[in-house]
């Protein structure tokens, strides 16, 4: 067992995690979550700044005389999904749950914070970044715009996420491009409402939307080179409330993922043109609401090698995989890596449901392991 793990307060780690899981808050609404985290950090003697990018927190601790500084980032927003797990600590908020493990991420960084404040076995400044609104890609850009890196200087920044399907408690690092850029768009089609028995007197946006969903899939099949990676997912199709009513509008919510600037421009351009032609062919008008532009997550090779070496020293060669897998999933930590060198790693969550599944469960056995990685990284980088 890793030596740091033995000295962590595992009972507290579990209590913090279960509290956060019971009380999830959606992106940009995380006020109570932020208060809970900030109170803990103040109690351990950190200099705590709140309200960064709305609900973001930066907690700083300086030990010794070194001018070196690093940042550790954890996210803490929840998802608009109904949890179906039968857990003693299940979500108490209908339709909202921590089904991506951000509660676990926040608890692991809190565990590291407590240990670092007690042991102070480093020389320099550690900045703990607790970030809101990762799920909507708003949190990191908002914190950066609010002076994250100008107000809180740091040499490098590090992130971590759990991943189902990878071996529990083991670490996975990848050089360069690790995750895709995501563009979250909403398309609203407007037709002409009417009675279900008289479609000739209406313009049906559901038919237009169904046609559009199918047409959008041709982008990957016939526009993107087969050796490239991209995907267009229509995750929500919202229209109407009754079977005998032709709705006035239909709304599609899209998740568009690409791995190169060229493919991004191509795919987004095709989404725009296909939406226009499909809407016109059905007699509908349309509006495209574009969200925060996406960014590919690119790890710095030198920082990745350093973090992987520190993890090997702390947990052994068998527990560290470098190079590890890459994914079409997305992370707004990518925006932080555009500003500062650093790396983002994965900690395996074992054989569980995938993140964003209503039966996903964060494996609590990872809490002390993830916290110990953060401690080892601080002590290694700020030796």
- Name the structural class: alpha/beta
Radius of gyration: 23 Å
CATH C-level category of the largest domain? Alpha Beta
Overall geometry comes to elongated
CATH architecture of the largest domain: 3-Layer(aba) Sandwich
In short:
By secondary structure, the protein is α/β, with parallel strands linked by helices.
Task: Describe what you observe in this structure.
- This protein is an alpha/beta fold and 383 residues long.
- Helix content is 36%, strand content 26%.
- The protein has two domains: 3-180 and 296-381, Zn peptidases (Aminopeptidase); 181-290, Alpha-Beta Plaits, CATH 3.30.70.360.
- It has helices at 3-6, 10-22, 31-43, 102-119, 139-145, 148-151, 205-216, 218-222, 261-282, 301-315, 333-339, 366-381, and strands at 47-52, 56-63, 69-75, 124-131, 156-168, 171-172, 176-179, 181-190, 194-195, 230-238, 245-246, 249-258, 285-290, 297-299, 320-321, 342-348.
- Helix 2 packs antiparallel against helix 4 (102-119) and helix 7 (205-216) runs antiparallel to helix 9.
- The radius of gyration is 23 Å and the shape is elongated.
- The mean pLDDT is 97.
Question: Any descriptors?
Answer:
Alpha-Beta Plaits, four-stranded antiparallel sheet, 2 domains, eight-stranded mixed sheet, alpha/beta, 383 residues, Aminopeptidase
Topology of this protein?
Blueprint: H1 3-6, H2 10-22, H3 31-43, E1 47-52, E2 56-63, E3 69-75, H4 102-119, E4 124-131, H5 139-145, H6 148-151, E5 156-168, E6 171-172, E7 176-179, E8 181-190, E9 194-195, H7 205-216, H8 218-222, E10 230-238, E11 245-246, E12 249-258, H9 261-282, E13 285-290, E14 297-299, H10 301-315, E15 320-321, H11 333-339, E16 342-348, H12 366-381
Parallel strand pairs: 3-4, 3-5, 5-16, 6-15
Antiparallel strand pairs: 1-2, 2-4, 6-16, 7-14, 8-12, 8-13, 9-11, 10-12
């Amino acid at each position: 067992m890793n030596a740091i793990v033995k000295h962590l307060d595992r009972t507290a780690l579990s209590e913090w995690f279960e509290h956060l899981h019971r009380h999830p808050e959606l992106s940009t609404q995380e006020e109570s979550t932020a208060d809970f985290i900030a109170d803990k950090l103040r109690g351990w003697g950190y200099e705590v700044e709140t309200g960064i990018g709305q609900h973001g927190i930066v907690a700083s601790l300086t030990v010794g005389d070194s001018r070196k500084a690093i940042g550790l980032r954890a996210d803490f927003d929840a998802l608009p999904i109904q949890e179906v797990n039968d857990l003693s600590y299940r979500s108490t908020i209908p339709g909202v749950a921590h089904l991506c493990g951000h509660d676990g991420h926040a608890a692991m960084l809190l565990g590291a914070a407590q240990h670092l404040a007690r042991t102070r076995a480093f020389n320099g400044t550690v900045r703990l970044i607790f970030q809101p609104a990762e799920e909507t890609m708003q949190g990191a850009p908002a914190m950066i715009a609010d002076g994250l890196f100008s107000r809180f200087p740091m040499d490098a920044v590090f992130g971590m996420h759990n991943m189902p399907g990878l071996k529990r408690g083991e670490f996975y690092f990848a050089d360069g491009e690790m995750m895709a850029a995501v563009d979250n768009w909403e398309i609203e089609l407007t037709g002409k409402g009417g009675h279900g028995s008289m479609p000739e007197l209406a313009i049906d946006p559901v038919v237009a939307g169904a046609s559009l969903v199918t047409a959008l899939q041709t982008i990957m099949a016939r526009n993107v080179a087969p050796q490239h990676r991209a995907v267009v997912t229509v995750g929500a199709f919202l229209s109407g409330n009754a079977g005998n009513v032709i709705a006035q509008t239909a709304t599609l919510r899209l998740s568009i993922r690409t791995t190169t600037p060229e493919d991004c421009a191509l795919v987004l351009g095709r989404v725009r043109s296909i939406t226009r032609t499909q809407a016109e062919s059905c007699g509908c008008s349309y509006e495209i609401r574009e969200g925060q532009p996406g960014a590919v997550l690119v790890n710095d090779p030198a920082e990745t090698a350093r973090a992987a070496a520190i993890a090997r020293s702390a947990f052994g060669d068998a527990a560290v995989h470098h190079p590890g897998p890459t994914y079409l999933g997305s992370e707004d930590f990518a925006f932080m890596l555009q500003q500062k060198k650093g790396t983002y790693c994965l900690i395996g969550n074992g054989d569980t449901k995938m993140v964003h599944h209503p039966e996903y469960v964060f494996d609590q056995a990872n809490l002390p392991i993830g916290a110990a990685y953060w401690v080892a990284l601080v002590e290694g980088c700020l030796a």
